[in-house]
Write a structure and sequence with these properties.
Rossmann fold, alpha/beta, globular, 4 domains, 5-stranded parallel beta sheet, Luciferase, domain 3
Length: about 650
């Protein structure tokens, strides 16, 4: 695309016309339905978008209106986003696993009069909130299964709206192009709601210019071309998916593949073989857990080979990937490992063709990061925010380090405040928090600098290192630093730990809540002939305590070698009786810990960790899959780490 065309195509609908003009027959979207991959070219994609946009207009959708979108990654849902933009409207995607109350807040706050829902489950949520949101004029669905008898005046099929669109286009063929031409880069392209770790989610307003400039810079940075292949599997409400599955695809003209379902992502990924991949650390953690479970089930010869060649990989794989010097012997061993272990493993993970992979959203444990790079997967970290249209820092090839998140991205200015908070300014900086000028003023300075809320520093080579959330970094009673997220990420590297919450700020010692990974622990229990009736029973098993103790002891070894965090070794822990859950308010929809809510909800457990108690009773409110609630009672054991004398005992002895 020429510079002139780039300046003219300052909105996504205008850019779509360029995509069709320059490569209309190239694949734009693929979707796997009923086991078969269906392909849309850019010309097909534009046709659906234009028909749906005409249909929305026929329903009464006009410039400035909001369109809520709820569902998994589907071509029609992405098309609906672009259709709203064609009319000067604003898509507002919601997390597909949101409960009705969360959908209600988003619809009410954004004043969305129209909803696009993937299937019956999402339509039912929209209907459930209709009484509280009577301004909703229409609910449009993609998948018709189970929706035959719903009110056709309110609940319409995607096909029905397309047909209305065809008729309007015939009556007024120039209408849509005129609406597209009226748009400008300064117009709002999308409102993305934050995960709400500290309270009510905020609506981040991003313009077409915010998204297009940063996407063009990112495509150039990573040499993204029309031949790039990616998999869209992350929530559409997350800024990462909006950039990588929508914005960059429009900018570079590559094909986005939508899996058949969440359960088939791994199989679909193997079939597609993407060369560009993005995932938060929890995805990479889950994949590693799956690998380790399979290896435990393998024969002893295969296990021996795996562990031997992984030792070779840890020693040489990362250096080979970075084109550094490696002995001939290690290169030969690594080649054998690639043939026997690494190649088949990457194929199983669907990563055989990965040219570049990114992780962001949370800090990733160095052990986890090094594992993938040792296999030859070019996994890199970026640091970003919704408020930045993702990109703040990126890692260059050859300058990839597990402890840093790279250098300032193209056109990004970076600085560190006196209190160690990271600030940035860039073309991607959001316009405002929707209907929240106070929060906007707290986060964004008049001259465009954004306060990230993260504490960090830039090293002598210009690489940014994030320590923790600025508000979460504390001090223990001996004056040493306590960085909970750093410790939690080290714990979650181990396959038997799914989630961890650590405590230590203004305390004499560090302690932790642990959620076991049920898949990994169940596999271990089966191999050891241990029977159990459910999560609560296996979590309280004495032998599971040993598994978790071993993991924590290894983390403590690492912490003991760190002069800044030596005092943060975990001395006491509780294995929780239930999984921390977004439906219970304990995690965000992107699985970030809501520390304040956990501190309030489990205050008695925290107090018990800093007492001489060896067990504590707890009554928890839980939300079931159907939205109903109940209570769960448990008598939890409190465990002390062998070899680490709990501080309360030390204090008692001293007195």
């Amino acid at each position: 695309m020429t510079d002139r065309n780039q300046s003219v195509a300052d909105t996504f609908p205008k850019l779509l016309r360029e995509r069709v003009r320059t490569g209309g027959d190239r694949p734009a979207m693929r979707e796997k339905r009923y086991g078969i991959w269906q392909t849309w070219t850019w010309k097909d994609y534009e046709g659906v978008i234009r028909r749906f946009a005409h249909g929305l207009s026929d329903l009464g959708f006009k410039r400035g209106d909001k369109l809520t979108i709820i569902g998994d990654n589907r071509p029609r849902l992405y098309a609906a986003m672009a259709s709203a933009q064609c009319l000067g409207g604003i898509p507002v995607p919601a997390y597909q696993d949101s409960v009705a109350g969360e959908i209600q807040y988003l619809v009410e706050h954004s004043e969305a009069h129209f909803i696009v829902a993937e299937d019956q489950e999402q339509v039912d949520k929209a209907l459930e909130i209709r009484e509280q949101c009577p301004f909703v004029q229409a609910i449009i669905y993609d998948n018709p299964r189970g929706l035959r008898d719903y009110d056709p005046e309110l609940v319409l099929s995607f096909e029905a709206l397309e047909e209305r669109g065809r008729q309007l286009a015939e009556r007024d063929p120039g209408f849509l192009d005129q609406a597209i031409d009226e748009g400008s880069g300064a117009d709002t392209a999308v409102i993305l709601y934050t995960s709400g770790t500290t309270g009510t989610p905020k609506g981040v307003v991003l313009s077409h210019e915010n998204l297009l400039v940063t996407s063009r810079n990112a495509a150039e940075f990573d040499r993204i071309t029309p031949d790039t292949n990616s998999l869209a599997y992350l929530p559409m409400a997350w800024v990462g998916d909006n950039i990588f599955s929508f914005s960059e695809a429009f900018v570079a003209g590559f094909c986005v593949n939508c899996p058949e379902s969440g359960a088939t992502v791994m199989q679909d990924m193997r079939e597609i073989g993407p060369d560009f991949y993005f995932g938060p650390p929890r995805i990479f953690e889950n994949l590693l857990t799956m690998v380790m479970i399979r290896m435990e089930d393998a024969g002893w010869i295969k296990r021996k080979l795996f562990h031997y060649f992984m030792g070779v990989a840890r020693r040489a794989g990362g250096r080979i990937l970075d084109h550094q010097s490696v002995s001939l012997w290690d290169r030969l061993l690594y080649g054998v490992g690639e043939l026997l272990i690494f190649g088949p493993l990457k194929n199983t993970l669907g990563m055989s063709r990965i040219r570049v992979a990114y992780t962001a959203g949370e800090a990733i444990g160095p052990e986890l990061f090094d594992f993938y790079r040792s296999l030859g997967i070019n996994l890199k970290q970026l640091y970003g925010q919704t408020e930045a249209a993702v990109f703040v820092t990126m890692q260059l090839d050859g300058e990839v380090r597990s402890e840093t998140v790279g250098t300032a991205f193209t056109d990004v200015e970076l600085k560190i405040a006196e209190n160690s908070e990271v600030l940035y300014r860039s073309p991607g900086v959001f316009q405002e928090y929707y209907k929240n000028p106070e929060a906007t003023a707290e986060t964004k300075t008049p001259d465009g600098w954004v306060k990230t809320g993260d504490a960090g520093y830039v090293d002598e080579e210009g690489h940014l290192r994030i320590i923790d959330r600025a508000k979460d970094v504390g001090k223990m009673n001996d004056g040493s630093m306590f960085a909970p997220k750093y410790i939690e990420n080290k714990l979650k590297f181990y396959q038997y730990i799914k989630e961890a919450v650590t405590f230590g700020d203004q305390k004499d010692y560090a302690s932790a809540f642990i959620n076991i990974d049920l898949d990994a622990v169940s596999n271990w229990a089966e191999r050891n002939n241990i029977t159990y009736g459910g999560y609560q029973e296996i979590a309280s098993h004495d032998k599971v305590r040993g598994l978790i103790e071993d993991c924590i002891a290894k983390v403590n070894e690492d912490l003991a070698a760190d002069s800044h965090l030596r005092s943060s070794q975990i001395q006491r822990f509780i294995i929780l009786h239930k999984e921390l859950d977004a439906d219970d308010g304990e995690l965000t929809r992107t699985r970030k810990v809501r520390r304040r809510i956990i501190a309030e909800k489990y205050g008695t457990l925290i107090d018990a960790l800093y007492s001489d108690q060896q067990h504590v009773e707890v009554e928890s409110q839980v939300t079931f899959e159907d939205g109903s609630t109940g209570s769960l009672h448990a008598d939890l054991k409190i465990y002390d780490l062998p070899g680490l004398k709990p501080m309360h005992e030390s204090l008692a002895a001293a007195s």
